[in-house]
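Q: I have 351 residues here and want to know how they pack in 3D. Can you give me a structure?
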Amino acid sequence: MEFKKQKNGEVEDAGFRPIDKEAREVVGLWKKSFIFISRAEMKTWKMVLVLAFVAGLATAIVAVVSFDREQKSRASLVPARIFFTPASLSLEEGEQFNVDLNLDAAGGNVVVSRVDISYNTSNLQLLSSSTSGSAFSSENACVYNSKPCEIVTNDPSLGKLSITLSKPSPGVSSSSGKIATVTFKALKPMSGSTSDLKIDFSSQGSYSDSDIILDDGNGTDTLSGVGLLSLSVSAPDTTTPVISGGSPTGQLDSTTTEVMMSVRTDEEASCRYAKTAGVEYSSMEGTLEGDGSTNHSVSLSGLVSGATYDYYVKCRDISGNSTVDDYRINFSVKSVAIKGKSTLSPGKTKK
């Protein structure tokens, strides 16, 4: 940002955006409160926010995080928290998942939240982060590029994601207000890990980690704790379902015209059938009821006496593994006995 002084002592715009002019006016208004020269009283996070937003992001944040170095008293701390939703996940290797970062303001009014996240790049890949629908987006007067004011940085080499959001006074007061949604891909198996994806936090009042800033005029960091996320990631399922218990079998009564054909699987699956062997699962003509379960059945009608029936069943589990070999179900219906004649099946003769 560059100012050009005129002869009358006024400052004129030199290629400014409207937000730059607005920021300049706010800085002038708060010039007694802001110290732009690094001193012990000026915390690192404040300097970063002030410089970033004055450079063009927004001006409301400049006012809400103002720090008067003459005022040393600290307000009574409100035990705010940042936590994950859900708090635990069970996944398969290669699966994508979403988790929300949420704020519990504990009854306080929050004007700035900064969430620093560490993730293990060997086990997790960050795909995206979104602040859409966050508690800071509603009726936020601080807007830049048609979005509520925010600073989002990601360093994939270090596995560090930082999301800073702001909202002018009175800010946000919520016991479960969404800050952002992050999307990751699980790269390797993990067993109940709480260290591969975590919110950075060391102690209340520290400005080198995640922060929750109260609307108290002092820039008070009130973050007192963070929630853990437990991740369990299993190796991918490559085993096909095992089919057993096929029914009916053998010879059915001659009066049978309808029968229930059923099979069992050793895992949750969906099953289909064909009347000829060697048909791919996806091309099979019939479907057995019981998708996503271990018991599967279908009613077969139109059976006639003296006939033999062959059906070929294949099943696919919830991981998409389909059986390769046919599971054959074979049965027949007895021939109707005719008085004075044998009850041989059609096509056979008595020797």
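Q: Anything worth noting?
A: The chain has three helices and 24 strands. The longest helix spans residues 44-57.
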